[in-house]
Design a protein that fits this description.
By secondary structure, the chain is an alpha/beta fold. The protein has one domain (about 5-230): Dihydrofolate Reductase, subunit A (3-Layer(aba) Sandwich). Helix content is about 25%, strand content about 20%. It has a 9-stranded mixed beta sheet with strand order 5-4-3-2-6-1-7-9-8. The structure holds NADP nicotinamide-adenine-dinucleotide phosphate (NAP). NADP nicotinamide-adenine-dinucleotide phosphate binds near residues 89 and 193.
Amino acid sequence: MTRPFVFINAAMSADGKISTVERKQTRISGTEDIDRVDSLKAGSDAIMVGIGTILADNPSLTVKSESRREKRDKVGKDANPIRIVVDSTARTPVDAEILNKGEGKRIIAVSQRAILEDIDLLSKKADILVCGTEKVDLKELLHILWLRGLRRVMVEGGATLNWSLISEQLVDEIYTYIGNMILGGERAPTLVDGEGFKLGGETTGGIVKLELLRMVKLDAGLLLQWRVQGSQGSGFTVPG
Ligand SMILES: NC(=O)c1ccc[n+]([C@@H]2O[C@H](COP(=O)([O-])OP(=O)(O)OC[C@H]3O[C@@H](n4cnc5c(N)ncnc54)[C@H](OP(=O)(O)O)[C@@H]3O)[C@@H](O)[C@H]2O)c1
């Protein structure tokens, strides 16, 4: 199934954690990296997150720079990319920042498990796409996005969504910002959680191999840009 170019962007500690053990967002990068992420957002057609990230962090996922919003406007795009929540049972709170802050379209992708009352409530603020029976069928979702003309999708986590996308071979590139801190905690989320690949196991696709495209010292840490080997990636480059 044809799909857009998909890349994950995440900030992690030097020990690979993307938040603290209480699953609370913490500042891992600095101003240079925050600006880089804003630029990536502004250059994307959509930004996708899992419902776990919405409930934990309540992000708005808007483009912060006014000049970048204006630039999008000049070429006929909404100020913010389409914001997408992967949310099987339509648990996104109606007062969530992502549904209320900043102009632009929103999509909540649900599965057939979502009940009509919740869908109705959310449909006042977002387009609802029903994909899959239990979990959201990510392949189908990405294909629908492609059919709607979306060509570049940025994924902003979290760990569970990252696992599904990567293990289903739906990711082309990964940006990992590695911050100068240790967060620790056996149960703190990492860049990719989920079931994990097993040696000789049956998990779809096997262990995913990456090719390092770029390595830059940024703020007090390091930015790595990876291409997923075997992906259809077209080499989206980080600005700056
Ligand atoms: N440092 C960073 O860059 C960064 C960025 C983002 C998030 N985070 C952190 O990541 C943590 C949240 O991660 P998380 O793993 O708890 O949640 P998540 O990955 O944001 O969302 C996972 C949820 O999405 C839903 N989902 C529906 N269909 C799915 C599918 N096919 N595959 C996977 N998920 C599907 C599931 O809930 P339902 O079954 O209810 O649908 C699942 O539990 C937070 O602590 C947050 O602070 C860090």
